[in-house]
């Protein structure tokens, strides 16, 4: 077998005790990430750390994420959850603004808009999203890759339709960033939870915002961290950073010390290599399912969903195979630590 950065990383960093096919729920933590978290926890317990953690680790994670999605680090804000990032964007919209979303979209992306009673939400099928943008649409909010079934949005068509009607775009890249080639700067906003395909601990998330769109976001969570020079802004009102860092939340240091290492690992492997690997395994599974008489949701996603087969989740768990059940779909998802043997094991048990 040809030795690649991906295969080296899989061998060096992971040793799952199950056939783990559930990255869409959470990604496995690399050994280097676990080591960083443990080291910081030990320092905190021993009183050896000045402060609870290093802001340099947060900056390193910001830079690592920026490289993966093709933007400058100045366009990235760090935080703890997608819902908080989306809430900031929801707060920026004027009353009666229309937000267009796909049907069945993930809750964290739509709930902050839905619970503002003075906004208008409109839902359409994912395939018709671009065609549903109209002159009074203020924002199109959608996932690049759908959580429930792995379908990918027609990103180019939605961008073009939004631009034609003067609407902003918000892309949730939580199920995409890491394996799916994505240029975050092509959208007004992107939000990404770090604990899935980015292989980060929970408590890490990233917001990207264009320089033009930044001017329209309120600094609702302003504090010393969002000043851009936090050690000089600890008392009294702080000046906001001129970058997207003005939207930073106080970091969960344990999580970000780990995220720094996970994002460095993904940078070593490369998005293109991971995309080729994960989608080839997904294609192998779709072909095998067809032989068994099961029709998977079509596409070229690294996430494979089989409608009506979600009830097999517990059977598979008893056989040592970890998948998920989402909206009645059996959902399997692939990352760098998966192999053809894992696909074949799943097919054998399903048969």
Describe the structure using short key phrases.
alpha/beta
- Distance from first to last alpha carbon: 28 Å
Q: Helical stretch count?
A: 12
Shape: globular
Radius of gyration: 21 Å
Q: How can the largest sheet be summarized? A: 7 strands, mixed
How many strands in all? 12
Architecture overview:
It contains twelve helices and twelve strands. The chain has 351 residues and is an alpha/beta fold. Strands 2-8-7-6-5-3-4 form a seven-stranded mixed sheet, sandwiched between helices. A three-stranded antiparallel sheet has the order 9-12-11. A two-stranded parallel sheet has the order 1-10.
Write a short abstract of this structure.
The chain has twelve helices and twelve strands. It is α/β, with parallel strands linked by helices and 351 residues long.
What's the helix and strand layout?
Blueprint: H1 5-13, E1 19-20, H2 31-46, H3 55-69, E2 76-79, H4 82-92, E3 98-102, H5 107-114, E4 120-124, H6 129-132, E5 137-143, H7 155-165, E6 168-172, E7 189-193, E8 205-209, H8 211-214, H9 253-269, H10 271-291, E9 303-307, H11 313-318, E10 321-322, E11 324-326, E12 329-333, H12 340-350
Parallel strand pairs: 1-10, 3-4, 3-5, 5-6, 6-7
Antiparallel strand pairs: 2-8, 7-8, 9-12, 11-12
């Amino acid at each position: 077998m040809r030795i690649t950065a991906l295969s080296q990383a899989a061998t060096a960093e992971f040793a799952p005790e199950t056939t783990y096919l559930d990255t869409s729920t959470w990604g496995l933590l690399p050994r280097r990430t676990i080591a960083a978290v443990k080291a910081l926890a030990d320092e905190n317990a021993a009183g050896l750390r000045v402060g609870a953690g290093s802001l340099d680790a947060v900056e390193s994670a910001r830079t690592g994420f920026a490289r993966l999605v093709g933007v400058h680090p100045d366009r990235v804000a760090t935080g703890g959850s997608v819902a908080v990032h989306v809430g900031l964007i929801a707060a920026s919209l004027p009353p009666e603004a229309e937000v267009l979303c796909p049907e069945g979209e993930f809750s964290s992306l739509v709930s902050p808009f839905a619970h503002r009673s003075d906004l208008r939400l409109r839902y359409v099928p994912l395939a018709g999203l671009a065609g549903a943008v109209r002159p009074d649409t203020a924002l199109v909010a959608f996932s690049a890759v759908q959580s429930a079934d792995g379908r990918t949005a027609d990103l180019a068509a939605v961008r073009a339709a939004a631009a034609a009607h003067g609407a902003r775009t918000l892309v949730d890249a939580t199920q995409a960033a890491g394996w799916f080639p994505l240029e975050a700067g092509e959208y007004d906003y992107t939000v990404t939870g770090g604990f899935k395909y980015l292989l980060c601990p929970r408590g890490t998330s990233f917001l990207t915002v264009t320089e033009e769109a930044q001017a329209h976001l309120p600094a609702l969570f302003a504090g010393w961290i969002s000043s851009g020079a936090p050690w000089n802004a600890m008392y009294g009102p702080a000046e906001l950073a001129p970058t997207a860092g003005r939207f930073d939340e106080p970091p969960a240091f344990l999580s970000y010390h780990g995220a720094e290492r996970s994002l460095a690992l993904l940078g070593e492997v490369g998005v293109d290599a991971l995309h080729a690997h994960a989608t080839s395994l997904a294609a192998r599974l779709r072909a095998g399912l067809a032989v068994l008489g099961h029709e998977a949701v079509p596409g070229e996603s690294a996430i494979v969903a089989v409608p009506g087969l979600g009830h097999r989740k517990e059977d598979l768990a008893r056989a040592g195979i970890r998948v998920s059940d989402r909206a009645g779909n059996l959902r399997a998802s692939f990352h760098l630590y998966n192999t053809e043997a894992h696909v074949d094991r799943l097919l054998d048990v399903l048969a």
